[in-house]
């Protein structure tokens, strides 16, 4: 289970990443095993992973390593199944109202992007104490979101000539907003086939095939998994099918920080949608903390 082999991605590991990842997962594991004497062993091992990783590594690889340590010590992964179902159900209950918001806007695709970007707030790797009340933050973020005009023009231009769009998903709950963006894209560009790529195994609150089925994603996209439980799209570990879809895509949408941290700088056809939940991410993309971002890959 390597900690670092991070090929040519433009991102790097910051001290902020190490501490954030350790603290968020420790809070979850402590709640799961409050009186277990093995907790100290987990703390020491997780801390060693975070402190020992080189700068060329990335947070998603550390998260997989931490989850592996938890499995070795406690006999199972860090379980986010309850949180995943909670947010999927909560957003599904709002789906009709959100769709009306999207289709009544002057530009449904742009409004769908705003909603999908804002939904990236739902992230247990970054915010360990999320509650259903956090959904209010999603819509507040959507209201103040702006889609960069130049990037959006490039995106629309790319869509105009594309036959296939690959959508790399991130977290549960927000996948409902991803689905609605895909629906808006399919209505605006009916000739485009959409491939939705989810994780190949359970990790944090990231989307798997089961979660995609729970929210009905398959109605609008062909769903595949990337063959790995890394909370990102780390190409050396993904399956051949995922790499083939990416290589042949006309447009790629990369959702969330995990995909950004493992892909940015490697996919000229990619557009990244995320929320700046970390100071170094905000600084890198010239945004404010907790501001949404829609950016193209490096030229």
Task: Please tell me about this protein's structure.
The protein has 13 helices and 6 strands. The relative contact order is 0.15. The protein has a 6-stranded mixed sheet, sandwiched between helices. The chain has 2 domains: 15-74; 81-296, Rossmann fold (3-Layer(aba) Sandwich), CATH 3.40.50. The two termini are 32 Å apart. The longest helix is centred in the first third of the chain and has 18 residues, at 15-32. The protein is α/β, with parallel strands linked by helices and 299 residues long.
Q: Cα distance, first to last residue?
A: 32 Å
Strand content: 5-15%
Radius of gyration: 18 Å
Number of helices: 13
- Total number of distinct structural domains: 2
Stretches with pLDDT under 50, minimum 5 residues: 1-7
Provide the CATH superfamily of the largest domain.
Uncharacterised protein PF01937, DUF89, domain 3
**CATH architecture type of the largest domain:** 3-Layer(aba) Sandwich
The CATH topology of the largest domain is Rossmann fold
Shape: globular
What is the secondary structure topology, with strand pairs?
Blueprint: H1 15-32, H2 39-52, H3 59-74, H4 81-93, H5 95-103, H6 108-118, H7 135-144, H8 149-160, E1 164-168, H9 174-188, E2 193-198, H10 209-214, E3 222-225, H11 240-248, E4 251-255, H12 256-263, E5 270-275, H13 279-284, E6 292-296
Parallel strand pairs: 1-2, 1-4, 2-3, 4-5
Antiparallel strand pairs: 5-6
Helix pairs in contact: 1-2, 1-3, 2-3, 4-9, 5-6, 5-9, 6-7, 6-9
């Amino acid at each position: 289970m390597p900690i670092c082999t991070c090929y040519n991605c433009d991102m790097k590991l910051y001290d902020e990443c190490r501490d954030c990842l350790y603290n968020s997962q420790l809070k979850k594991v402590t709640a799961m095993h409050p009186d277990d004497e093995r907790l100290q062993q987990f703390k020491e091992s997780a801390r060693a992973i975070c402190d020992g990783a080189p700068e060329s590594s990335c947070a998603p690889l550390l998260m997989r390593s931490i989850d592996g340590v938890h499995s070795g010590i406690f006999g199972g992964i860090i379980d986010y199944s309850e949180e995943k179902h909670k947010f999927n159900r909560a957003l599904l209950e709002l789906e009709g109202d959100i769709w009306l918001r999207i289709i009544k806007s002057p530009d449904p695709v742009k409004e769908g992007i705003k909603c999908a970007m804002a939904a990236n707030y739902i992230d247990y790797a970054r915010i360990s104490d999320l509650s259903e009340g956090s959904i209010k933050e999603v819509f507040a973020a959507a209201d103040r979101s702006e889609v960069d005009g130049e990037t959006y023009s490039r995106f629309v231009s790319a869509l105009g000539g594309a036959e296939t769009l690959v959508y790399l998903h991130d977290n549960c709950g927000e996948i409902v907003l991803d689905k609605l963006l895909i629906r808006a894209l399919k209505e605006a560009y009916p000739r485009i086939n959409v491939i939705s790529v989810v994780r190949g195994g359970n990790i944090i609150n990231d989307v798997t095939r089961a979660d995609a089925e729970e929210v009905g994603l398959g109605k609008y996209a062909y769903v595949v998994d990337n063959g790995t439980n890394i909370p990102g799209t780390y190409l050396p570990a993904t399956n051949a099918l995922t790499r083939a879809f990416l290589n042949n895509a006309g447009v790629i949408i990369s959702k969330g920080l995990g995909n950004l941290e493992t892909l940015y700088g490697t996919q000229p056809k990619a557009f990244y949608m995320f929320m700046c939940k970390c100071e170094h991410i905000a600084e890198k993309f010239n945004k404010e903390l907790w501001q949404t971002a829609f950016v193209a890959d490096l030229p």
